[in-house]
Design brief:
Number of helices: 11
CATH class: Alpha Beta
Strand content: 15-25%
Helix content: 40-55%
Low-confidence stretches: none
CATH topology: TIM Barrel
Radius of gyration: 17 Å
Largest sheet: 8 strands, parallel, barrel
Oligomer: single chain
Order of helices and strands: EHEHEHEHHEHHEHHEHEH
Structural class: alpha/beta
Distance between the termini: 14 Å
Strand order of the largest sheet: 1-2-3-4-5-6-7-8
Number of strands: 8
CATH architecture: Alpha-Beta Barrel
Bound molecules: 1,3-dihydroxyacetonephosphate
Number of domains: 1
């Protein structure tokens, strides 16, 4: 019932030449049950929209205000104006580098909705929290505080990205992924009701690669992936899209 979603986060990578990778992806046959999204750096966003075909384009962050004296920031309205349909909020790199709190992320998600964008809200525990067996409580608290009231299957995607799995080649066991995703699903159903709670897509992120994608996508309540490094090359990301569409 939920369409799958393969989302690529290019982070602070990509110059004009990188758009060739997106063009290659856009020329591949459309998957049957999988939506595709690329989140390029803001500098490439408008140009990416022009070559993306049926692939949707998202921002990587937005300011909570629609406009104003915030040098260097980009608002959700600006992302929408450039052709984005979604924006990542609360990535652990933003939480760490820019000291973003759950309250900040909730405000950004609300700003995204106000601009007509889907908010891709990111959650994840640190290695110390994982080792202290705090993962489920940390994720529950982040999910509760980062997700605004009014979340639906249309306006919100949740991405579980263990911090220690990002860019490291380390991946939780399939049981560990299932445990977190099942808990997030139950929490969303309890808070937003069965219809919307079951409609929201739950992505796994953290060292998703072509060779581990099929196993991850066969895991309970995993509706897709948020992919960093492996989204930079069309061949790698296409292999992940294909694995997801076949799952
Ligand atoms: P990697 O796929 O490079 O581990 O990055 C995951 C991520 O942070 C996506 O947002």
């Amino acid at each position: 019932m939920r369409r799958k979603l393969a989302a690529g986060n290019w982070k602070m990578n990509g110059l004009a030449a990188s758009l060739a990778e997106l063009e290659t992806l856009a020329q591949a046959p459309a998957p049957h049950q999988t939506d595709r999204m690329i989140c390029p750096p803001a500098t490439l966003l408008a140009r990416a929209v022009n070559v993306a075909g049926e692939i949707t384009i998202g921002g990587q962050d937005c300011h909570p205000q629609p406009s104003g004296a915030h040098t260097g920031d980009v608002s959700a309205a600006m992302l929408a104006d450039a052709g984005a349909t979604a924006v990542i909020v609360g990535h652990s790199e933003r939480r760490a580098d820019h000291h973003e709190t759950d309250a900040d992320i909730r405000a950004k998600a609300e700003a995204a909705w106000a601009a007509g964008l889907t908010a891709v809200i990111c959650l994840g525990e640190s290695l110390a929290q994982r080792e202290a067996e705090e993962t489920l409580s940390v994720i529950a608290a982040q999910l509760e505080a980062s997700t605004p009231d009014g979340a639906t299957g249309t306006n919100t995607v949740i991405a579980y990205e263990p911090i220690w799995a990002i860019g490291t080649g380390l991946v939780p066991s399939l049981d560990q992924i299932a445990e977190v995703h099942d808990a997030m699903r139950a929490q969303l159903v309890a808070r937003f009701g069965a219809t919307e709670g079951k409609a929201m897509r739950l992505l796994y992120g953290g060292s998703v690669k072509p060779d581990n994608a099929a196993d991850i996508f066969a895991t309970s309540n995993v509706d897709g992936a948020l992919v960093g490094g492996a989204s930079l090359k069309a061949a790698d990301f296409q292999a992940i899209i294909d694995a997801l569409d076949a799952a």
